[in-house]
Amino acid sequence: MYELGGKIVLVTGGASGLGRACVQRFRQEGATAIAADIAQSSADRSGSSIHLDVTSEDSWRAAIVEILERFGRIDVLLNGAGVAFDGDDVLNCTAEIWRKTLSVNLDGTFLGCKLVSAAMREGGGGSIINIASVNGATGDGGIVAEGVAAYASSKAAVRMLSKSAALDLAARKTNVRCNVILPGYFATPMVLDYLASHPDGDAARARIIDAHPMGRLGQPEELAGIVMYLASDRSAAVTGGEFVVDGGYLAR
After folding, report:
1. CATH ID of 8-186+220-244, from 3.40.50.720, 3.55.30.10, 3.20.20.120, 1.25.40.340
2. Is 151 a catalytic residue?
3. What is the pTM assigned to this prediction?
4. Of 19, 31, 90, 138, which is the most exposed, with the fewest CB atoms less than 10 Å away?
5. Of residues 2, 151, 194, 249, which has the active-site annotation?
6. How many helices (H) and strands (E) does the chain have?
């Protein structure tokens, strides 16, 4: 449908949640999708997955070299790795939680944009797709927990990083595009595990659903359509864009 056959795709956070759903859809569309995740074994050389610590520049460089040796290029990067922690309200967020959240969500995305775009440029171009969040536009994670100080800050920064990267890469005539997606609350392990551990999970789930005019959590596979579009040549004129997939959350 999206003519992705033959494309080489790297998906961070590809072992679970939104990343895993996108890996599966890329493969259905005929692309070679490599699921990169810190949860993957460093001994896995199957070609379908790879170990990657997105906070480590050395880990990024090793993963890129390995993929280039196997496949010769990287056409698409989906920066999907992300974390969120309890106790993230501004009064109680510890320096450790702050640093860990920004290290994975922001630094990891920056390293991917920087290092993979260089490989893409050498290969003739490509598409970078970053995952931010509606919390990076509103900061009102209090519908679920006390707050999302570090998480919302990291995702707001990913939005601006994406725009800056898009402009810079276009100005340098790299033929590398960069766009960002703002998901609402999806039924991912991160969200479902939080609800399962919440002292009043049913009430927390109800608050989330009430905040989405469509009246439900998103399903991970529902994000994949816009990802496929941004990865494909159909979006060849699209860069620096923000794409909201949130069941109407930001339209409230």
Report:
1. 3.40.50.720
2. yes
3. 0.94
4. 90
5. 151
6. 9, 7
